[in-house]
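The records we work with from here on pair a chain with its fold. The integers have meaning only within a learned vocabulary of local backbone shapes. A complete example follows; check for yourself that the lines match position by position.

:::
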Amino acid sequence: MTCNNRFHSVLLSPRSEMPCAHGFAGCVEECGQLLGETFVDFALAISHIARINLNSLETWKLMRIDPVLVAPALTALYRMWIGTMRYQDSGQLTPIRTCLNEGRPVMLAIWHEELFALTGYGTTVLPGRFATVVSDSRDGELIAQVLVRIGFVTARGSSTRGGLKALNQLRQHMLDGRIGVITVDGPRGPRQVAKDGAVYLAQKANAKLFPVRCRPSSAFVFKRSWDHFQLPRPFCTCDVHIGAPLEFAPGKMSAEDLHAGSQRLGQALHDALPGG
């Protein structure tokens, strides 16, 4: 299947603590190093490109900008960027649609480096169906504001604050028919090493856990960032690859079981992309 549906919206959030002092290329490179912890936490790159100086945390606190006022501009900028791209998935979305039609909970596992393109893909082919974790912080409020505008449901928390609460909320959203999404090596890496949270949540929700990868035909790759973050170039083609789902038996999982499941997930993500 080739998706030609364009100009769909998604979530953005400024997180950098350093003011912008570079040109376009330098800004994008710096942004790639500081992207935050959720499926859609990439607005540092967008804010630099748009020259919206929301990336200084102290400036953000002093300005007290109302997220309701900022969110529309950030969302519109992302729409325009994703709207130039063409996604292709060769019909691989069918198993996910089947699970949803059968009422089976669904989770998507992605690498942090590919979240920009995959967020655009998700909101293009299944608009209004996603749930994800949003940082329980002031800048997280901006994320939540944008998500509400585009039909997302959020679970508030992070790896350092409210993490278990956020996972429980995300589980409930999945049981209610939303698709849960987790960047399994975020928020700070190591790169392409799956953590235990996705496996834990998929098992608790009895969800099918799909590994999802993408390969843009052309992208900025930030080699100095921990994740080698990919920012697809405008007007590129992006191939999306959805691997076979992982399932986990009900019952209590030991630490060893979780670790083994995470290793399986990491390998599944590697295998989902042709050529690794």
